[in-house]
Amino acid sequence: MDMEKEKIRRKVKSIKSLPTLPAVAMKVSKMAENDKTSANQLGKIISTDQAISGRLLRLVNSSFYGFPGRISSISSAIVLLGFDVVKSLIISVSVFEMMEKGIIGLWEHSLGCAIASRIIAKRIKDCDPEELSVAGLLHDIGKIVVSIQLTENYEDIKKLIKEKKIIFYEAEKEVLKFTHEDIGGWLAESWNLPVSLQEPVLCHHQPTKAQSAKLQTSVVHLANFLVRSVGFGSGGDPWVPKLNRKAWDLLGLSFQDLEEIIRELGDELESVEANTLCESAD
To answer: How far is the C-alpha of 171 from the C-alpha of 205, rounded, in Å?
Structure first.
């Protein structure tokens, strides 16, 4: 590890109250790595935390996944989605409240990016759409830490965004000398997530820096670009980040593919938005 990376890691570690995972999420994380663990065993552990299991079932049954029949048990969700995806979703729902307390609209943006990542991944060989949806959901996790734990710096970042008309990522680099990518990457590593999830979190603004998960990182990079372009949710600034040409080329998509992706994304975002309004009314 080079000195600059180690310096950033020390800065990130020094931030007070970094998000920690609930005991159930930590236990699930260890159990999911054991080949002998059954879906029923994992389901029983998750079900001991009513808040987490309730949110997980709500997410699985939402239009986000669009399964034809209602999923009423955690073990059924595990069979349908797999251990790794459920483990990562539990981490996602564990930080749901933090997202709501942080940047306004960040959860919506993250959910939009998850949907876009899944839609794109369906067209890419060697990409797991469900795993990529989780990567999209978690990609901006570091922004929560910046907005909640580094409040003074966050105010400076917002000011710089307005003054220079630059994206959140660029303003962070000027104010903090590190970014939400660095924080998110460190969190993903400390939570023992697979590299296919770590790198999209760590490199979604600079996809060519990914080492082992270039395709997955490029998918999340494009998803972030598309969701910011349509203005769904908020990433903390009103600007659309640049699309990396090398990442686009790596995905091997045609402009016809892109048109179909945008059309499908629009339909799914409308559906999610409509369901959210209905839930709010209830």
So the answer is: 13
3-state secondary structure of 178: coil
44-103: pLDDT as tens digits: 888 887 777 887 787 778 766 667 778 888 888 888 888 877 877 777 777 666 666 678
The Cα 211–Cα 1 span in angstroms is 14
- Angle at which helices 129-138 and 195-203 pack, to 10 degrees? 40
Torsion, Cα of 255, 260, 262, 268 (10° steps): -170
Structure pTM? 0.82
Using DSSP's 3-state secondary structure scheme, residue 191 falls into coil
> What CATH number was assigned to the domain covering residues 96-282?
1.10.3210.10
Kindly report, as residue ranges, where domains of CATH 1.10.3210.10 are found in the chain: 96-282
Rounded Cα–Cα distance for residues 250 and 246 (Å): 6
